[in-house]
Amino acid sequence: MIDDEVVLVVDDLPQNVRLLDAVLSPRGYRILGAASGQQALNMLAVERPDLVLLDILMPGMDGYEVCRSIRQNPATAFLPVVMITASGDQEKLRAIEAGADDFVTKPFDQGELLARVSSLIRIKRYHDTIERQAAELAEWNRDLENRVAAQLAELQRVGRLRRFLSPQLADLVVGSGDESFLDSHRREIVVVFCDLRRFTPFAESSEPEEVMSVLNQYHAAMGDLVFRFEGTLERFTGDGLMVFFNDPLPCEDAPARAIRMAVAMRNRARDLASGWARLGHDLGFGGGIAQGYATLGRIGFEGRYDYAAVGSVTNLAARLCAHATDGQILVTQRVLAAAEDIAVSDPVGELSLPGLSRPVKAFDIKGLDAARVTT
């Protein structure tokens, strides 16, 4: 039995419609009848039969014109049409030219009619399956394109965040979907400045390729430590490096973490300096750490943004770094007071630093108390 396939019979003689209904209905087909070509086209605008049995000779719009109209409509262009002819080859030729898929001759043989209807409906079923699969594939492609676009946007977003955040912080921010920290805000932070001693004379006397090789090694080593200690990288400027703690996420041990990172950087820089010395490069390391309030947020322009801290605390850390000699990490009294349980230090007295109106009491971090901290 056929699963309720629909056949539209178009014939101006009611007895012909009833005859075809009597032949097809017992086989499971559901029959729709149209008494004229125009009625048939009107029905096709709302119905979706699986096949049309179309008489040729009808008053008004004949079967050829109906068939051409069916073929010209994109919604019915592939609808199987069987023309019912009364005679000869000429009508059959015109039926094919009009777009008919097949034809039967009156009086028709029931077996032949059923075979032709069954064959064409089976072909239509295959065509419908292909169209459905094509539509599903198009939908999947659209969904895939949307997902790829969303993932690309997410990757770009992560990429922007990882310009200044450690991978852990970037993933946390992306996971929460909250980028409000990029808006301008005020917060107390601990700032670390560090750079290479004697870098300027080295750069002046060395080939650019040598300078670039040294910077690449230095940046890779320092960047790894910034990420390990979950600091926020504001910028690399040649041999200079600025990192801060307690923003965008709170960091209860910001002074201690800043000191631990700076000490690890000094140790790593000493290892690098040993290799550079074998190549004739005399380079060292110095750093400065300060604590205070700053205004933080996104700065830049469309397509090129950075995350920056603005305030006197950044200037103080930079001045301490500039004053430090090779191997020194100079910190303010406030930073040391918050981390004195892990830091081993020597006082260096009150420093008069360029751009600062008052002397600053500073301390040189000699190392870490191994009994209290593991770096």
Model description:
The protein is of the alpha/beta class. The chain folds into two domains: 6-133, Response regulator (Rossmann fold); 167-368, Nucleotide cyclase, GGDEF domain (Alpha-Beta Plaits), CATH 3.30.70.1230. 46% of the residues lie in helices and 26% in strands. The protein has eleven helices and 13 strands. The protein has helices at 14-24, 37-44, 63-72, 89-98, 110-161, 167-176, 199-205, 208-228, 254-278, 312-323, 333-339, and strands at 6-10, 30-34, 51-55, 81-85, 102-105, 185-197, 232-237, 240-245, 284-301, 304-310, 329-332, 343-351, 360-368. Strands 6, 7, 8, 9, 10, 11, 12 and 13 form an eight-stranded mixed β-sheet that branches. A five-stranded parallel β-sheet has the order 2-1-3-4-5, sandwiched between helices. Helix 2 runs parallel beside helix 3 (63-72), helix 5 (110-161) crosses helix 6 and helix 8 (208-228) packs antiparallel against helix 9 (254-278). The longest helix has 52 residues, at 110-161.
Summarize the structure.
The protein is an alpha/beta fold.
Distance between the termini: 80 Å
* Contiguous uncertain segments of 5+ residues: none
Strand content bin: 25-35%
Q: How many DSSP E strands? A: 13
Anisotropy-based shape: rod-shaped
Order of helices and strands: EHEHEHEHEHHEHHEEHEEHEHEE
The averaged pLDDT comes out at 88
Reading off the top of the CATH hierarchy, the class of the largest domain is best stated as Alpha Beta
CATH superfamily of the largest domain: Nucleotide cyclase, GGDEF domain
CATH topology description of the largest domain: Alpha-Beta Plaits
| Total discrete domains | 2
What percent of the residues sit in helical stretches (DSSP H or I)?
40-55%
Query: Which architecture name of the largest domain does CATH use?
Result: 2-Layer Sandwich
What is the helix tally? Answer: 11
State the assembly state of the protein chains.
single chain
Cα-atom Rg, whole angstroms? Answer: 42 Å
What profile does the largest beta sheet have? 8 strands, mixed
